[in-house]
Structures are given as C-alpha cells and as structure tokens.
Amino acid sequence: MSEIWFRTGEATVLAAEGQATDAMPEVLIGSVRGPAGQAFASMMGQVVGHTRMFVVRDLNQMVRPATMMTTKATIHTAEYVELLGGVVQGAIGDAILDCVIEGVLPKDGLDDLCMIVMVWLDPRCAEDANLDKADLYRTNHEATKIAIGRAMRGEPTIDELIANRKTVKHYALDGVVEY
Fold first, then answer.
1. Total domains present in the chain
2. Which domain holds residue 148?
3. What CA–CA distance (Å, rounded) separates 103 from 88?
4. 3-state DSSP call for residue 119?
5. Gap between the Cα atoms of 155 and 159, Å rounded
6. Tell me, what's the pLDDT at 2?
7. Which segments constitute the Formaldehyde-activating enzyme domain (predicted)?
8. Is 173 helix (H, G, I), strand (E, B) or coil?
9. Which whole-number Å values give the CA distances from 7 to 83, 152, 173, in the listed order?
10. Are 70 and 119 in contact (CB under 8 A)?
C-alpha cells in the first residue's frame, strides 16, 4: 500500500419524510505519522459540548483504522449523547468496516492509518418522540461510506468542480446568487 497522507471527503444523505435524520459526515483519512495522526492525537481531550470518542461497533469492537468521531453541533442533553454514541456511532462503525470489506479502504496497513469523522446529528433528533432510529442508522451508514469513498478517490476532482461551477450551487444560495 502506498502511504495515504491526507485525504478528505464528505457526503450528504437526506432523511426520510418527516425525520430530522439527515447525515452529513466529513472525514479525514491519513497516516498516523502525518498531520492526520497529529490531529487525531490532539482530539484525545474533551471539549465542552463537543464529545469526542473512538468509533466502536459495540463494546470492545473498536474499528480499524482507528477512528475518532465528534459532533458538529453542540451537545446539550444526555438524549443527544445517547443517539450519538449509540445509533450514529454504530452506523459509522459498520460503514468503516464495510469500506474495508469492499476494498474502499485497504486492509493491509490499517494500523498505519487513522480517521476523523465530524458528524452532523440534528439536535431535534434527541427531542423527537417519533424518531426513526432505523432511518438515523441508514443515513449515517450510507453517508459515511460515500464520504470515505470520495476521500479515497479524491472526489470531486477539480475538473468536476470547474465543469459544474455554474450548474451546482449551495442550497442556501437559492435566490441569493444567480448563475
């Protein structure tokens, strides 16, 4: 395996109708000896409101490559932490393992790599009595796999970005910027 130094990827998978379970992970994959490894190690301490944790599939089942996850939203409740460290963490762990099984991540040399996954978990999920946890799992599993794949393939390429410069715009710019 050639050394993977610093690769990034992201993806968005939308929730089922009536749910706030959109998933928007951002991943960093790289060598434990490089900047990704340094960033990974520096995340070992906690920051108030932004819990950091190793990704585990279940008790005593930490994924490889070693992966640290943190939320992009400030945590205010125990219910939020339970979803983040439960369904979302399990979905991300399964997605990482699936990426190894499917050859997206190289099986050889996994202990030389580390990953950081920044997770979007909408705070409304923790307050929703009708939360569809299966949809929360689905969106996070699928989006994590897509983000890792994009990171490993270097997508989108600069040529793709240039080609769609006038046809793709951020949803928040609708009515703000005309192309």
1. 1
2. 6-168
3. 23
4. strand
5. 10
6. 65
7. 8-171
8. helix
9. 27, 7, 27
10. yes
> Among candidates 166, 155, 132, which has minimal Cα distance to 9?
155
**176 domain residue, yes or no:** no
Residues 81 and 70: their CA atoms lie apart, in Å, by 11
Beta strands in 26-103 (DSSP E): 26-31, 52-54, 66-71
For the segment 85-140, what is each residue's pLDDT rounded down to a tens digit?
Answer: 999 999 999 999 999 999 999 999 999 999 999 999 999 999 999 999 999 999 99
Backbone φ and ψ of 56, nearest 5°: -125, 145
With pLDDT > 90 as the criterion, what percentage of the chain qualifies?
A: 82
What is the Cα–Cα distance from 161 to 150, expressed in whole angstroms? 14
Contact 169/157 with Cβ under 8 angstroms?
A: no
- Domain containing residue 60: CATH number: 3.30.230.60
Q: Is there a cis peptide before residue 156, judged by omega within 30 degrees of 0?
A: yes
Question: Residue 54, by phi and psi: left (phi above 0), alpha (psi -120 to 50) or beta?
Answer: beta
Label residue 107 left, alpha or beta by phi (over 0 means left) and psi (-120 to 50 means alpha).
Answer: alpha
List, in sequence order, the alpha helices (H) in the chain.
35-42, 78-83, 89-101, 133-153, 158-163
* 57 Cβ contact partners less than 8 Å away, ≥ 6 residues apart: 63, 90, 93, 94, 97
Checking if the pLDDT of 1 tops 70, the result is no
